Amino acid sequence: MKSSLKYFVLLLCLKFIEGSFRCDYEYSSKAQAWFKSVVVPANWFDARLRCSQEGAVLASPKTPEILAEMRNIMNRSNPEYEIFTGIHATVSQGDYYTIEGTPLSNILVPWSKNEPDNKDNVESCITLNGNGELADRPCEVTRPYICYRPESSQVEVSECGTIDPDYHLDKRTNKCYKFHTEPRNFSRAFLACSAEGGHLAIINSDAEATVLKEIYAKYPDAKLLGNFRKDLAFIGFHDWGERWVYRTIHGETLKEAGYNKFSPGEPTNIPEQTCGGIYRTGLLLDLWCDRPAAFFCEKSPGYPVVCRASP
Predict the structure, then answer these.
(1) With respect to CATH, is domain 168-299 assigned 3.40.50.300?
(2) 20-151 classified as CATH 3.10.100.10
(3) Could you read off the pLDDT of 265-305 as tens digits, one per residue?
(4) Opening angle at CA 50, ends 49 and 55, nearest 5
């Protein structure tokens, strides 16, 4: 524990760290890249989003070295699984590219028997099996997947202990915050914060409400592009399926968490408004969970830990 803490402090003292990335990824010297196996199945769209929010991409077998590492990872877990790759035709049916833009014709990986078949004309995402063979599948089904990040010779690590430059430490709370200006619904906002190593922001004091209010003020309406309300944002509380009994995403009542100040007239207790938000004033409100909004994430400075690539 002491050695881990010492290493983390060293990371914070350095602005640039060579050959480093999140410690929940493993480095492959042969592929010269970082990999993370995600065994909980997800549909292709959620898998793509989670990898992206972690600073990676949904892995595709673009080279023999990447293919070999993907198969090694699969065979260590369950070689009978199919996993989603980043190869897709979600933009134009039948036009397959990796997320990075490599056409399928440039990927020299064989197809499984009787594949591709585009069954019912709905199979636009490509899977890989333990034998190193491809198949087309519906993007909406769920599969495990692998996130991938090519090695970078130099990575900037912020005071928040992350390579994400949009997280900033506030010394009043000793927490790091990020304001997402691209609107998402509550569920996908939760996913994004979690993938970044944090969580939807939980207000624990008047001081923390002030912190979020000040961050919000840096983003006037003109900076928030899109057709959504600019005066409110998601934060981390909802009713947990018990109407109008609000708790944080960590299970505390708002009073237990330390901040329970709603804007006048809030909560409205409209049946569909069961997720939590904050106005620009720093006061709380209840929101529609399925309507996209901007949102705040927070994280501890020491998580996720950054590791150096081992040779």
Answers:
(1) no
(2) yes
(3) 999 988 889 999 999 999 999 999 999 999 999 999 877 77
(4) 95
